[in-house]
Amino acid sequence: MTVNTATIGYPRIGRNREWKKAIEAYWKQETTEAELHNQLHELYVNQLRIQKDKGIDFVSVGDFSYYDHMLDTAVMFNIIPARFKKQNLSALDTYYAMARGNKEAEACEMTKWFNTNYHYIVPEFTDVTPALNENRPLAYWQKAKDELALNGKPLLIGPATFILLGKGFKQEEVSSLFAQLTPLYIQVIKELHEAGAEWIQIDEPIFVTNKAEGYWKEVEAFYQRISEEVPGANLIIQTYFEALDNYQSVVNLPVNAFGLDFVHDERKNSEAIKAHGFPKGKKLFAGVIDGRNVWKSNLIEKAALVSELQKLVGKEEVIVQPSSTLLHVPVTVETEQELPADIRAGLSFAEEKLTELELLKDLLKGDSEAVKAHQQEIEAFSKVANRVHTKTRAELEQIDDQALSRASVAERQRLQKEKFDLPLLPTTTIGSLPQTAEVRSKRLKWKQGQLTNEQYEAFIKEETKRWIEVQEEIGIDVLVHGEFERTDMVEFFGERLGGMLTTKNGWVQSYGSRCVRPPVVYGDVYLVEPMTVKEIVYAQSLTEKVVKGMLTGPITILNWSFPRTDISKYESMNQIALAIRKEVKALEEAGVHMIQVDEPALREGLPIRAEKQAAYLNATVEAFRLATTGVEDTTQIHTHMCYSKFDDMIDTISALDADVISIEASRSHGNIISSFEQYSYDKEIGLGIYDIHSPRIPSFEEMTNNLDRALRVLNPAQFWVNPDCGLKTRNEKQVIDALTQMVNVTKKYREKLAAVAQ
Ligand code: GLN
Ligand code: ZN
């Protein structure tokens, strides 16, 4: 008895991030559009070839993208805001303008994709006329057919997910959006079916949330129409990241197959099948190999799970696959030869997961020899020596409520105002400064041994010094050292903390062309030695102004790493928090009395299902406090958040008890600001007054308006002026121009406030 295998998405970036390099070269106008198409075509075909060669039976096609799959869907259906349409750019440049903004128009909003560290471009449905610009999945399907004789499984984002994750419409307009998009989906699916696509995958991850609940009539009508208009097409409704919110409603939809996550569902999906049955004759695409994490699967256990599903659903009907697209894991462990062998033995990235599917297939056929070596590797990893750090465990036991609290906010504010004596509306930045080609090339040379430690450190010092001067010249009030020594805000700490490892080439797409290398938490985490003191103390020695210490917080370190699965995530988070607490203390002792602990990923880790959210939020507050409350009341703790909506979690943000928070605000067009109308926030706060993701420098008026809007709801005495986020991705000129503008706007504003006060 053989079982078939499938994939539902694969990393786009290539083994060496060729994807990123090709796209960025096009942006810099180093290559032409035709060259970009050629390069990406090759990458696309290659990713399919790998899957085909590994023997995957149903390979998904058209998961590939030039930036983001939600943006692809929007452009395909002509959901293109007027501010881009009217520029009359080429199709490709319109696409990239929507993603990145340009001189004439602000970029579309970007936000996180469910509980992952992937960010999608939010479709804007304001004043648009849906139309089919191109049958994208068909083009990708055809390429697979022509190049590899592969009858792939084309993939579309389903209408419920596409619309409900979008913006720019009222609740009562959802029906009409479904109605407008339905004929377009029909045409796409019809053409795919007529061309010969055997299976068509419709991603509806929104079905694991309760967001579609109020629109179920529209959802049913849509799938009903498709089944009537294209009766022969085999549709799979594919979900992932959680159990279905409403199993019975989903499996009643008139399609031929359902794809469910059996890794992140806490057994709820299999329980639902047991309790309510599975529709006869339909296929179950069973996500049994973890598509989100990097650990080898215990295939004996997986085979047992598959057998259980086969009993419930029918032997012929189950197809095995990863629990989600493999976009969220790195490409291959093969490039990680420098890792200790017993640790590497425990890892499985995208290519290895394909092998796991093959092995699982063999095992289900009855060939248990095939998985012997695999199972032994898992065994070897479980015995890695330093996975338990007893000292950390004992110290955590000792932490009580008192260790987690500080003096009242009012008292701290009084002490800190006196100590720092900053002007009204103090200006600052979020931490990183341009990681120029020079910075990156020096780091590379140092890593390759072409620069000595001393040479590299001298360069970092030079760069820090230059930028301290630049910041002073611009007139910023609270300075930063620039983070030149860091590649990435999490990786830097992952390299230095005990119990964590970093990879050489384990890149994962984060947003657009930006990739990150998430560290791996493989054991108990602890502080080996101070990680940031030297650089900050040096920067502080160069100036009379205050330089903020700069750390990444425990929530973000954990959420942007691959967590271990043998202890709870919250336990790991507290271990990291304890390490950061020691680092904060070390900074304070070295004379650094303003310390920022960044938590941009706070929101990202929020469980999808409402019933799990309170526990998560409590755990994050505890971890952040553990990291930051070990200091004197005169020491000012800052934090920073970005990349997602925070307007509905102000109370959690407040409970973190940071003295100052900076939050991204300009790209989400002020939603966060209005939430402060309802909530009286008693700490200091800076709502970003310009978007740093775009190369565009906002005008004086624009920045003033953003500041003005914030100060309509917040008291100037509690307000800081800063950009939305770190400046590492911008070039030197953009940063200097933008910050100069920001300081000028602030000075003008201070004058205005002073005039009013008189
Ligand atoms: N301090 C970090 C930086 O400026 C914060 C980055 C972030 O929030 N993503 O780059
Ligand atoms: Zn940020």
UniProtKB/TrEMBL annotation:
GO terms for molecular function: 5-methyltetrahydropteroyltriglutamate-homocysteine S-methyltransferase activity; zinc ion binding. It comes from the Bacteria. Catalyzes the transfer of a methyl group from 5-methyltetrahydrofolate to homocysteine resulting in methionine formation. Pathway: Amino-acid biosynthesis; L-methionine biosynthesis via de novo pathway; L-methionine from L-homocysteine (MetE route): step 1/1. Keywords: Amino-acid biosynthesis, Metal-binding, Methionine biosynthesis, Methyltransferase, Repeat, Transferase, Zinc. Zn(2+) 1 binds at H640, C642, E664, C725. It catalyses: 5-methyltetrahydropteroyltri-L-glutamate + L-homocysteine = tetrahydropteroyltri-L-glutamate + L-methionine. Zn(2+) binds at H640, C642, E664, C725. SUPFAM superfamilies: UROD/MetE-like (SSF51726). Residues 5-312 form the Cobalamin-independent methionine synthase MetE N-terminal domain. This is 5-methyltetrahydropteroyltriglutamate--homocysteine methyltransferase. Its cofactor is Zn(2+). InterPro entries: Cbl-indep_Met_Synth_N, Cobalamin-indep_Met_synthase, Met_Synth_C/arc, UROD/MetE-like_sf. Belongs to the vitamin-B12 independent methionine synthase family.
